[in-house]
Structures are given as structure tokens and as C-alpha cells.
Amino acid sequence: MLQDNLLTILILLPTVGALALIGHGLFWKRENDYRWIALLFSVITFALSLLLLTRVGENSDAAFRFEQKTLWIGAIGSYYHLGVDGMSLWLVILTTLLVPVSILSSWNSIKKRALSFYVFMLILESAMIGVFVSLDLLIFYLFFEASLVPMFFMIGIWGGERRIYAATKFFIYTAVGSLLMLVGIIALYYIHQQQAGAGTFDYLTLLDALKSGRVVITESSAFWIFLAFAFAFCIKVPLWPLHTWLPDAHTEAPTAGSVILAGVLLKMGTYGLLRFNLGLMPEMARRFAPYFVVLAIIGIIYGALVAMVQPDVKRLVAYSSVSHMGFVVLGIFSFTEQGMQGALYQMLNHGVSTGALFLLVGMIYDRRHTRQISDFGGLATPMPWFSTFFVIASLSSIGLPFLNGFVGEFLILLGTWLSTGFSYNWVATMIAATGVIWAAVYMLWMLQRVVFGRIRHGENARLSDLNAREVGLLIPLLILMLVMGVYPRPFLSRSRESVVAVQQRVTKSTGAAGSFSVEVQENKQR
Amino acid sequence: MLTMLRYIIFAPLAGAAINWLLGRRARSELFVGLVACGAVAVSTVVAFYAAFMHGGALHLGEAGNSTAPVFDHLWTWIQVGNFRADFGLAMDRLSGIYTLFITFVGLLIHIFATGYMHGDRGFYRFFAYLNLFMFSMLTLVLADNFLLMFVGWEGVGLCSYLLIGYYTDRREAGDAAKKAFVMNRIGDWGVVIGVMLIFFLTGSISFFDKTVGGAEVYSALARIAAMAPEAFTAQSIIAGGITSAAVLLFIGATGKSAQIPLYVWLPDAMAGPTPVSALIHAATMVTAGVYMVVRCSAIYTHAPTAMFIIAIIGAATAIFAATIGIAQNDIKKVLAYSTVSQLGYMFLACGVGAFVAAIFHVMTHAFFKALLFLGSGSVIHGMHHEQDMRRMGGLKKYMPITFFTMFAGWLAISGIPIWAGFFSKDEILWRTWSAEAGWSQSLHSFPKVLWVIGAVTALLTAVYMTRLMVMTFWGGERFREVNAGGQADEAHAAAYDEHEAPHDAQTASPGDRPHHAPGEHVDDHAHDAHVDDEHADAHAHHSGPFTPHESPWTMTVPLIVLAVLSTVGGLVGIPYALSSLFNAHTPNYFEQTLEPAVAHPVEKGEGARAAEGAGAGANDVRWLSPPPPKTDGAAPLSVGEGSQGESAAERAHSPEEINAERLFTGISVLIAALGIGIGWFLYRRKPLLRAPRLLEEKYYVDEIYDAAIINPIKTGSREGLWKIFDIGVIDGIVNGMGRGITEIGSVVRYLQVGFVRWYAALILLGAVAVIGYFAFMLTQYAAR
Hints:
The structure holds two protein chains of two kinds. Chain A contains 22 helices and two strands. Chain A has helices at 6-27, 31-49, 52-55, 86-105, 114-133, 137-146, 148-158, 163-196, 203-212, 219-236, 245-252, 255-280, 282-308, 313-332, 337-368, 384-398, 404-418, 425-450, 458-461, 468-486, 489-508, 515-523; strands at 65-73, 78-84. A two-stranded antiparallel sheet of chain A has the order 1-2. In chain A, a hairpin with a 4-residue loop joins strand 1 (65-73) and strand 2 (78-84). The termini of chain A are far apart. By secondary structure, chain B is mainly α. Helices cover 63% and strands 3% of the residues of chain B. Chain B has helices at residues 5-26, 29-52, 93-116, 123-142, 146-164, 171-202, 220-226, 242-256, 265-268, 274-283, 288-295, 297-301, 304-327, 331-351, 355-382, 400-414, 420-433, 446-473, 489-497, 503-507, 525-532, 553-568, 576-579, 589-594, 606-617, 648-651, 655-685, 693-696, 701-741, 744-752, 756-783; strands at residues 70-80, 83-91, 210-212, 215-217. In chain B, the strands form two sheets. In chain B, strands 1-2 form a two-stranded antiparallel ribbon. Chain B has a two-stranded antiparallel ribbon with strand order 3-4. Chain B is globular, with a radius of gyration of 29 Å. The interface between A and B is large, with 85 and 75 residues.
């Protein structure tokens, strides 16, 4: 029973928690209880999410597990259809892990309207889990949009000085993107209705129809539908040049918001690209691959260069996200097993490492109420634990071997090198790989100015080191960095078949745009 | 036996972990020192056992003379598609030799450091890093594939970063640490791309053929060895073939082993404590580049263009750094440039195809340069943390052990016969003259040019080392005349603890880079006036005449051991041409051991020469492994299996060549003697003789890099990309559109007027409705 309805339970539990919080707030109004209730529900959700591992084992095939399918709106053929495969498995677990961590990080820093904050956080969790397990396009869209609203309020209410600007920018950017996606979804529904009799929003039904050729999307429709989806997802990623909402949103958001934004919300974009753009319109994906690769590489270098000169440490981490997510997009559009596995792995890595970095930045912000790099310096002396964690998280972000970042980045670069989807792939690899140098430059320079050196401001000498709660919430991430760097097998072997299925679909499909495969063959010569 | 190698790497890792976690609380230098030295001692013992046991890589007995490596597979690290990287260790003859000197010299330096770092507030941290370094370095050399080697490669870079920046409150240390890491990263870029290219070409990244859990893993190097060698053309560099891979890997080597153009980090790295300079920046880490090139000798012999580049870069770096070395006044800086220069020699050897000579020089250099650095550390310690040689002089009276041990190092690096450096350097020079690399067939006279550069470098080496010795140990006791005693290393930390202003941080010159070494200004009175006043307090306790003292036994014992090694360590590799002089006919053990582990340049007429050599002196050769089958023309070039390639001993033993080699040995000795003579007469009389300003300022290379590369990128990124493009162009467009489409305020108003809770409730209500519907549907579904 538990196992059969696991996904529904995972989605519902945080919302139930939110209801419980409101109930508690209405009747008892004990401010201190809110965070405990939120933590309790999110921890239970995390524990339950680990049950997913029982059915998505190592080397499991590409099929969806824990599938649930119930007709939702019969009139339009929308199903409440959930399922996880190797691709979504770890993203769900990453989500359920980061939420309790974020709640713990907000423990003392969220004083204003604590009830609303935790309610939003739990609703957000439901929506995020929903995004990764939806197998119906309409449900996916609902969850995708639903995640936007709580985040909008989290930035807008609990954010920094320019929170209104940042929240609005975030909202408009992403809302515009997802509206286009809605158009794309409806178009797919319409096409299916025309060719197969009945319209459907069901991902697997659509996929099946497209695979078997029962439904064929004409080239021109595929072009626009692909772009509509891609636009929504690329804003979310964000892919250069659609990234300017991110530095503002990440910087102004409260620590928990930044962690969730960087850790989970960005991955919705890359997940969507993998699942829908590549899965449903593989020919178009091939056709557009060179453009995505170019934009991704620009993003890698650009994000790193701009990160380098940021005077604000949180903004620096934010721009580093642009660079790291560029790697993910590059891996996805390499259409090789190495590159796509690396991309998926890098999504998790980025969630862990950047999440940890935002947490750490939040911890010094709580103490000093500034994020300016120039206000720090010499923190190693008063805060040795903080400094140790900060250095390790930075090294993980830099991509030091035996920490998580390296595995993902290396696989992505290797995949790009081996790619046959576009020409001059080796040039692309060589340029993208310089991103690793830049990462060292901006991260180490930041470390030098924040952690090392001499104490230049008297306040810094009296800062207290991390307390038990802070150490406790960082330790899981730290362990993950090490484990994922040294022994990636449990992760990679679970996602292999699902990723290969998508990869095969892209490289082998000869749908409406069969001519593209010739192009691919030509490029193979290199 | 099968799982033995892992203890070599994990013992130091365990030591690092214990010291990191418990060391601070233990508050006992004895505990920390014992853990750290004990961990390395375990590595050393296991390494020696693994190498010399029956069937071990260096076991040269009659029975177990296999050249197959000893494997230790831990787990498969990354496996995606057909790409596979194991966490697997392997010790063959090459990695065996490396492991031995790394563990042994490392152990000595650890012991030395317990004395040198005594009293430092970060004692535990220092040894944790040092142990972590040993783990990384041993992983680097014992890795059985490119990617795991890269783990060690980056790991040593990290430890180097941490240890250079060990005195975190010194700005120059932080700058130097960052510079080292970034320069290394630039090189690492080449390694990563090179590894990918090798995988692309061969489908494997393993060094050896092996079977893991039933799966066959084949050697990438053997695959490349089986390919046709590439031509000696410039186009081959960018052709994406073997030459490209070789050049990319060499880019990594220029970073790690401090060659032009990426050498600038190494002199700055002297900001780290002296034992670190000895271990990382002289004996072990910086020779990793040489290790990689020799490990990939199969690739390089197939890429004559890459060999040519290596030879040129090596020779250029050797002479370039040597000229700078002459002009430095900081004792450690002299040794740092000397290291850069000697590394150049090693690459010169690789470039002309003398891979064994390169490794030989790596080993002897590890002995004598570690000795010289530790000796300098002892001097700095005895001189109350003064590094400036202009304020030393006459120390041999006060520090006799340090003097005599450094004396051995001096003779060794200068190239005086029987001391270790002589044999290896002579070997390199001779092999340069008689270069047998693929490219030398097209450019017959070029090896001669390289030889001249090498010879001049040898002369300069003898000169600057003599200068160092003279300025330090002979002459007047200049420390009595000026305020000697500086702020190097731990004195600085002590000053920090006493809340005294650390000296350097406040005097850092504009432009982020300190232009004077610690204490340098004291001699220069014009400069002195405005700087030293404010720091008079800071080192008041150092000022005034004092008597230098000899160091404690923990420091002198390692010095003595290294002095012995620097004296006799070269005897394992006496070339045939010399041993036959004395009718000893001792085989060149080193060469014969290592020869099977490296590939040989493919040459025209190799078969003929082999036949010729067989007549000349083959009966003198005692084969340590079964004689390889004679082949005509190009020898099969498999690596690791060791059944290929004639021993150089056999090849080189034609009478004319032996005579020529002897002649060149004579020339080498003359050069060394001449250099020492010049140095002695020049600096014995005028120890403070100044070199041209261009040399003192290191050819302004740092300034040029700053102006030409670093500053434009910083400014361009800040002003161009961020402020103009990001904020101006993209945001401008977006915000403009935003304003056009909607009145931003209307969306936002809800946030400000307390509607939030209502809105939250509304969302929740919606969610509940949807969920209720689902729940209803589910019950329907269940009922059905």
C-alpha cells in the first residue's frame, strides 16, 4: 500500500504538513513550533523518498516504477499519471534532502512571518516533487507553475534589499517561459487528437505514438513546439542569455530560497529538456544541438568571467551557477551516454555543492549582515570549521577529483568530445574545458579574500564558529560530495538505462526529419 | 600481496585524517609528529617490500625478473558506456623507483619538519596537509590509468596550494598559493583534453593490459605503440592525433613541473614553509610532469614533433632559470630557480629520447635538491628566520653539520664526479649530443645547439651554487653588521600569536604582488628608510647581533642521510663508458632496470646498430630480464610488458661512441670545475656583487603576464561583460519589455499590503481541492 502509492504520498505529505502548520497556527500560535513541524514533515518525506531506491535498483531498465495512473479530467484525456525512472529518481531524493536542510538553515534567520515561510516551503516541496514524477504533461505543467508562486513569495517577502525587483523579474521571466510551454503542450494534444483520434496529455502515450509513427509531428510544428518547450526550460536552467533573472533572484532570496532555487528549481529546466525536448522531439533536438552547444559554452565562460569580478559573494556563487548549468546543457546536447550521464550527475552535483555554498554564505550573512567580499577576510582564524567546510564546498564546485563535481564535468567534456551530433566537437570541448580553469580563478580568489588573509575588520575577529545545527546540516552534503566523487556507481548505474533510452531515441530516431540523420553521419567522420 | 599497494597510499591518508581530526585536540607535537612520520614510515616499508619482494617490480633476482607490474584493484571508479576508469594501483619499474624515493625522501623531510616546525601553532594542520600530499603523490605515481593519475595530479596541486598558503595571514603566501593552483590548472586543462584525445584514439585510458573481474582492459599506451609514428611536421600538432595528445599532456607537464611559460608559480611558492619547498617544490611534485612524460614514452616516441617541443622548452627553461638564479639574494629563491632549471634538464632529456636519463636525474635531483632545501631550512632556522644571503656569511663555523651536508649537495648539483648529480647530468648532456629522438634525423645539428645550451646551464649552475655557498658559509659574518633575523616561516606565526603586526602584509606593494622577499629591504638602505621604521617593533626581538646555532638532531639526521645519498646515490647509474674505464664492467643498474619500462625512439637503422653493439660489449651485459628477441628495423614498442627494446647499454657500446662519451664526460667535469672556480673567485672577494637588474627582476615576466593577460581579462569581465553586457544590454532589454507588458507595481502590491497570508491560503485551498479530487478518484479506483 505504502509502496504502491509512494509517489502520491511523497507529493501530498508536505502539503499535509502545510495544512497542519496552518491549523497549528490558527489554534495555538506558538511561533517556535512552526519550524519543528515543518522539519518533521520534510524529514519524513525524505525518509519515505529513500524507499524509491528499492524499486529503481542498480542496472534497472528504463521503465517507470511506482507508476500510478488515474483518469483526472476525462473530457480532455488528462491523467493523474506519476512514475519515476533512473532520471528522476535522484532528483526527487535531492529535493527531499535539500528541503529539510533549508528548513534547518532558516531555523533562526526567519523571524518575520515564520508560519507563512514554512507553509510556502512545504508547498514548494510538493510542487517540486510533482514536477519530477509527473508523466502527464498537464500535471507537469501545473506542478511546474505551482513551484513558481511559493518561490516568488519567498524572494519577495524574506529577501534582501532589492527583493521586490528580484522577485518580479524572476516571476515574469519564468511565467513567460512556462506560458509558451503551455501552448506547446496544447499543440501536442491537438496533433495527437488529429492523427490518433483522441487527444492526450499523457507522456507515455504520446511517446509511444511518436515512436511507432502513429503520430507524426510535421517539421514546422515540431520546430515551434520544440522552441516553446525549450524556451521555458532554458529560462529555468538558465541558459545564456536568458540568465539575468538568476543573479538577482539568487542574491536577494533568503538562504533557504537560494538553496532550493539553485539546488532544485534550475534542474527542472534541464530535466525538462532531457525528458520532453529530447524525448518527444528528437529530430529537432538534433537539429538545434549546435545552437544549444554554442550557448552553453558561452554560458560556461561568461558565467565564470562575470563571477570572477563580483564584489558580492552570493552573487559570485549565483553566476557560478550559470557556468555550471552551462556544462549540464552541453552534456545533454552531446547525445552521448557519457555526456548525458555526466549532465544528470552534474545536476545532482550542482545541487549539493552550490546548495552547500549558499548555506555557507547564508551562515556568514547571519553573523555579519553583509555579503560584500571586501567586508570579510581572515575568517579562518575565528571560524575554523566554517572555513574548512567553505573550502571543501568550493573545491567541489571547482571540480577537484574525488569530489563530486569532477565526475560530472569530466563525463560531460568526454561526451562532448565523443559527440557526433555537431561538428568541431573537439573545439567545443577544448573551449568548454577552460571553464574549469576559470572556476579555480574565481573560487580561489574569493576564498583568499573571504577565508584567508588577515582580518581587516574588527567585527570579523569576534565571529562565532558554526554551531551544532549548522554543522549538522552541512555534514550530509559534505558526505555526499565525497561519496559522489569517489564512488559514483550507485548513482550512475541507476540512471544508465533511462539515459541511454533517451540517447538512443535521439541518435537513432528517423521521424519526420529523417534527413538529419544524414547530417549526423557526416559529422561522424571526425 | 595483491592488496599491498593500497597501504602505501592509504597510510598517509589515514595519518592526515587522524591529525586533522585529533591533532588539534591532542595539543601534542609528539603525537602529531609520530602519527605523521609513522604513516609515511609504513608507506616506506610497504613500498620497499612491494618493490623488492619476490615478484615485485624491482626484484632483480634471477628467478623473479618479470617486468610485469604488480596490480592492486580497489574498485571501478567511473564506468559509463565504454569509458572506464578504475581505482586501481600498479607498480612497475618506473612507478616503483618513483615510489621508493618519494616515500624515503618524504620520510626524511617529515622527520626534518618535526624539528623545523616546532612551536608552530598550526603544527597538526601542517602535518595533516603533508600527509595528504604524500597520499596524492603516491596515488599519482601508482595509478594504473590516466584518470586516477589525474586525481593524484590535482591532489598534489591542492596540497601544494594549501601548504604554500599555510601561513594564511601572509598576503604573499595567499597570492603565491592561488597563483600556483591556477597555473597548475591551466596545465591540467591540457591533461584533461589530452586524456580525452587518448581515449578517443585508443578507447582506453589504462596504462597496462589487465584483467579486472573477468573484464579485459587493454593498455592505451600499447595501442598507440602499435600505431605508426607520426611525421615530424608542425601540422601534426593540431591534427588531433598522437602528436596532439602528446603536446596536450606536455602542457600539463609545463604547469606541474614549472616550465616556460607556466613556471612563474614555483619561485613564488617559496612562501611556504621550507620543508614544503623541499618535499613538494623540489623532490617530488614538480617531477610529476617528467613522470607523466616518461610514463607516456610510447606516445612521445611516436610524436617527434612533441619531443622536439619538449627538448626546446626544456633547454630554454634550463638556461633561462639559471640566469635568474644567479641574481637572487633569497636563499630559497636561488634554489627555486635552480629547481626550475634542473627540471628543464629533465625535459631536455625526455625531448631527446633519453627517458631513463631523465628519471635518473629526477632521482638524484630528489636527493641533492631536498638536501639543499633542507640545508637552507637549517640555515634559516639557525639564522633566526633570515632568508637573505646578504645578511649571512661565515656560517660554517657555527653550523658545521649543515655546512658539510650542503657541501655534498653543492658538489652534487655542480656535477663533480662521484657525487650523484654528476652522473645524471653528464648522462643527459651526452644523450643530448647524440640525440636519438625521431626529430633529430631531420635536424642533425640541432642536438648540438641544445648541448651547448645544456653545457652553459651547467656552468651557470655551478656558478650560482658556489655563490650561494660562498655567501652563506664563507666570508665575513654580515649578520653582525645589520639587523638580521627575519620573519620567514614560523617566526611569522609566532609574531602573529604575540599580536605583533606581521611584517609582509602591511608592506605589500600595490598591484597585489610583494616585490621584495622577506627582509630584503634591510640591506638596501634607501628602501629601508620608509619601510622599516614602522616595523621596528615587529622584529625588535630579532635585531642586534646574535650567534647562529646548529639545528637539533631531528633536522641534522635527515641532512646527513640525504648527504650520503647525494654522494653515492649516483653510483647505481654509472654509464658503461665510465665503469669500463676502471675495468669494472659494472652494469648500469639503473638503466637496465628502467629500460624495459620505457619506449625507444623509432630509428632508422636501429637493427644495424643493435647488431654492432652486440659485438662490442654485449657479453659484459648481465641481463636482468630475459634478453628481448632481436628484431630488425623498428622494435615493437609495447610498454609495461617489457619484452621489447634493446638495452641502451647494448646499443651504445661501439668503441667510437664510448670514446666520445668519455670525452664529453671530461668536458662536463671541466665545466663544473670552471663554474665553481668562477663562482669562487667572483663571490669570495665580493659576496654582495650585484647582477644586472634585468636578472634581479626576473626578466619582468610576472609584470608582463599581469599587464598582458590578467588585467585585461579582469577589466574586460568587470566593465565589458558584467556592467555593460549583462546589466546594460540583456537586463535593459528584459526590463524594457517588462515595463511595456505590465505595470510591475501591480503584481507586487500584494506583497506589501499583507495579502500574503490570504494568497497563501488561496493556493492552499486550490491545492486541497485538487488533492481532494485525486483522493476521491483514488478511492473510486481502489473500489473498482
